[in-house]
Amino acid sequence: QVQLVESGGGLVHAGGSLRLTCVASGRTFSSYAMAWFRQAPGKEREFVAAISWWNSNQDYAAPVKGRFTVSKDNAKNTVYLQMNSLKSEDTAVYYCAAGVSLSASRGAYDYWGQGTQVTVSS
Predict the structure, then answer these.
(1) Is the alpha carbon torsion for 72, 76, 81, 83 positive or negative?
(2) Strand 33-39 to strand 116-121: parallel, antiparallel, or no bridges (unpaired)?
(3) Adjacent-strand bridge partners of 107
(4) Fewer CB atoms near the end CB (10 Å): N or C, the chain?
(5) What is the pLDDT of residue 2?
(6) Pairwise CA distance, residues 122 & 111, whole Å
């Protein structure tokens, strides 16, 4: 059974940093892409960043480009999202997802974690 477990969320002041972690288990992810999405209250779930396991290609949403960095540790089946220069508008529940192609579309991802709350106070 595939499991994606996020951690690392919390409360931080604007301008601060957090690192989110997603541990994947239950199958081989070497041919998968891993992504981070977020959902703020009353808003649609939106793409944040993604990375492919096989060639480490990355993609970022415009609002986070230059502030967030996605990375992975193949040996640990773990994906990270380093978030710097956080803003109040980054407040959301952040979800890890796995899919067969690197995409900014929610529909491209088959597996989802339960999410971790990130709150940025201004």
Answers:
(1) negative
(2) unpaired
(3) none
(4) N
(5) 87
(6) 33
**Pick from 52, 119, 45, 56: nearest CA to 89:** 119
Residue (of 98, 51, 67) closest to 59 by Cα position: 51
Alpha carbons 34 and 52: distance in angstroms, whole number: 6
Closest by CA position to 38, among listed 100, 87, 101:
87
3-class secondary structure, 14: coil
Question: Residue 91 contacts by C-beta under 8 Å, 6 or more apart in sequence?
Answer: 40, 118, 119, 120
- Identify the CA nearest to 38 among candidates 108, 109, 106, 111: 106
- In eight-state DSSP terms, residue 27 is S
> For residue 90, how far is the Cα from the chain centroid?
12
pLDDT in tens, 57-95: 999 999 999 999 999 998 899 999 999 999 999 999 999
Residues 34, 72: contact at Cβ < 8 Å? yes
Name the β-bridge partners of 70: 81
